[in-house]
Amino acid sequence: MDKFGGLTSGISVRLFGTFEIRRNGAVLTAADMGGRKPRHILEILLLNLGTPVSKTRLVEMLWGSHASDGAIATLESYVSGIRRAIQPGNTKKGPLRTANGGYVLDPQLVELDLSVFHQLVRAARQAPPAEAHMLAMQALELSAEPLLGFELVADWAEEARARHAAEKVAAQILAAETAALLDNPELTISLAQTALQSEPLNERAWTILVTGYEQASLPVQGLSAYERCRRLFDRDLGCAPGPALQAAHLRLLRQRAEGNTELSEVLAALLYLGERLHGPKRTQLAAEEARRMQENAGRVLDSFLQQALAAV
Prior knowledge:
Elements: E1 11-14, E2 20-23, E3 26-28, H1 36-47, E4 53-54, H2 55-63, H3 71-86, E5 96-99, E6 102-105, E7 110-112, H4 113-126, H5 129-142, H6 155-181, H7 185-198, H8 203-215, H9 219-236, H10 243-257, H11 261-277, H12 284-311
Helix pairs in contact: 1-3, 2-3, 4-5, 5-6, 6-7, 6-8, 7-8, 8-9, 8-10, 9-10, 10-12, 11-12
Organism: Arthrobacter ginsengisoli
InterPro entries: AfsR-DnrI-RedD_regulator, BTAD, OmpR/PhoB-type_DNA-bd, Sig_transdc_resp-reg_C-effctor, TPR-like_helical_dom_sf, WH-like_DNA-bd_sf
Pfam families: BTAD, Trans_reg_C
């Protein structure tokens, strides 16, 4: 049973994967919507759940510059058909309402999987780590299939997919960060790698990936990941990774140098030099020079460590 219980006017809608509507035990598919345009109208209203969309805006999204003089009347006819399909015998008080020269779907009478995804992610951001991780993973499981994957040619659908893709990456990173807090580095690494497949320049994803390798005691893999990130940022953004990622890189260097007295002494000397150059009396020029020296020193030591490993 869905959240509506005995309320026959409520509907549950699926936009991830296959389009589907459940109404009082009945299942409606795309074929029950009366054609492509009526389905598009309903989907646009679902993407704007609770917010009225004007008839003019709907006509523009559906027909663009090809809209005829009778487009408004055609739109109204399609909406009547949608009402008959999703709220039969209750066209006045069902989910689909007329509002402000347009139409709106009542969020109190519509359970939408995309809205549930948003609710889960919002709740995860406010929850302690264990609960946050569970909620974020639930959101990712719910959105495993593409949003509006059956609408391949509509610009508005592509825009919705792009927005959701960014939201999904944020959920993946949140799940990865909470996995790290729960001491699950394997899952941390996997989630971060998945996020980077979608957004290769996402520094937060790179940071949690490197942190995951650090937590898993895999310094060589972590150093390699940092180097890939550094090269990518330098090529595409013209900048170096930020302080949090550089700090993770430094911890990996220390981890890699453990047990090797000579390497540890080299690293300690580099760190001491960097601290002196970053002291309270530094000039702006000295600070910039220190930043460059630390970055170059890190790369040199990183390369040296990996070469030493390869020679073993």
